[in-house]
Amino acid sequence: MTDLSSPAHAAALDAADPLPTLRSEFLIPRHGDDEQAYFVGNSLGLQPRGARAHVEEVLDKWAMEAVEGHFTGQAQWMPYHELVRDPLARLVGAHPGEVIAMNSLTANLHLMMVSFYRPTRERPAILIEAGSFPSDRYAVASQIAFHGFDPVTDLIEVEPDEPGGLISMATIERAIAEHGPRLALVLWPGVQYRSGQAFDLPAIVRLAHAQGALCGFDLAHGVGNLELQLHDSGVDFAVWCHYKYLNSGPGAVAGCFVHAHHARTDRPRFAGWWGHETSTRFRMGPDFVPTAGAEGWQLSNPPILGLAPLRASLDLFDRVGMPALREKSRRLTGYLEALIRERLADTLDIVTPADPAQRGCQLSLRVIGGRGLRGRAAGRDLFDYLADNGVLGDWREPDVIRISPAPLYNTHADVLRFARAVEAWRDTA
Ligand SMILES: *Cc1c(COP(=O)(O)O)cnc(C)c1O
């Protein structure tokens, strides 16, 4: 039997992996003389080496060409968003006209709800998962209240029915059927941020539409992690950020998808000059005529400095392609899972589903209690121990450590380092 937890085995897995790591394309934070084992790509992805050149290009252009930079030379600012549009569309399985990089995730969620949450007396409700990311909950509750309805009755939260906060498809189906006639919108995550559960997104769209509701996705933890087919799913809209698995830097410009079936919609929207029909935008007329597709939801001219790192990141995704990256992700996370089951079952409970189709790269791990050092809660203690040893995960109160091997830059050796650090902690406790 192979010893899963020997460094030689991990090194052999890395050497034999069909998709060689792109780790050297990233700047890996240091831990003393070593590199960190960085598993927090679900929170802030690492910096691609190519990002700096794209940012400097913008700074140089600004220095040398100033306003002319909009119209001259390489990577002109006026059509700059086109540099990210096609790779972004490939990444999420969309047509180029269905995606736009703009604003931030929560701002885009609000803009999308302005158009796609149109409550009526009969149909005022929004359905989301219980325990959703706070910003999403604040956004939907405030939209409901903004329209004069009451979040207490009209924000429907689907409670988990399985251990660890997982939600079965049967429960989602039942909830959508039960509330169907009152539902204006179903808003669902691609990957639930706390549990790491991934969902059958096309099925959720079908269930929502069958009840006459619209459907939107929050893909903060899905983009760059799952193989998405947004166009084929038929989802009405989706929003995501680019600083997690998309490695585009803190507060990076976010992403937004509007399905082609809404390309020429006369739905209400909050308008700004950058969403105006491109050919006539600079006539500066008084009346808003939206440009077709997702670009028609833009408000302002985009922050070019903010978009620059996204180009470097998308180059890497394009080089590999999501299908191969997802396969590698399954291998890495599968190795993490195997190590935990074999070596750490007395210390860590895996919250995230065991079925690879129901998760992305992240495993959410509940620390089994009673092993705390210095009288502190075990989970927090382990988390701090890992950080002190250069193994970075993240912590979600009250007892969950999230470990997300990012297939672009994490290796089997990183995963083994995590498992060995947990063992060392356990054995000194
Ligand atoms: C990370 C994340 C956010 C963050 O919102 P910002 O507007 O980018 O600050 C929102 N929702 C979910 C589900 C997230 O995972």
Automatic annotation (TrEMBL):
It holds the Pfam family KYNU_C. It catalyses: 3-hydroxy-L-kynurenine + H2O = 3-hydroxyanthranilate + L-alanine + H(+); L-kynurenine + H2O = anthranilate + L-alanine + H(+). Keywords: Hydrolase, Pyridine nucleotide biosynthesis, Pyridoxal phosphate. Its cofactor is pyridoxal 5'-phosphate. InterPro entries: Kynureninase (IPR010111), PyrdxlP-dep_Trfase (IPR015424), PyrdxlP-dep_Trfase_major (IPR015421), PyrdxlP-dep_Trfase_small (IPR015422). Gene3D superfamilies: Aspartate Aminotransferase, domain 1 (3.90.1150.10), Type I PLP-dependent aspartate aminotransferase-like (Major domain) (3.40.640.10). One of its GO terms (cellular component) is cytoplasm. One of its GO terms (molecular function) is pyridoxal phosphate binding. Its EC number is 3.7.1.3. It is an enzyme of class 3 (hydrolase). Pyridoxal 5'-phosphate binds at residues 105-106, 133-136, 218, 221, 243, 273, 301. One of its GO terms (biological process) is L-tryptophan catabolic process to kynurenine. Belongs to the kynureninase family. Catalyzes the cleavage of L-kynurenine (L-Kyn) and L-3-hydroxykynurenine (L-3OHKyn) into anthranilic acid (AA) and 3-hydroxyanthranilic acid (3-OHAA), respectively. Homodimer. This is Kynureninase. It comes from Lysobacter antibioticus. The lineage of its organism: Bacteria, Pseudomonadati, Pseudomonadota, Gammaproteobacteria, Lysobacterales.
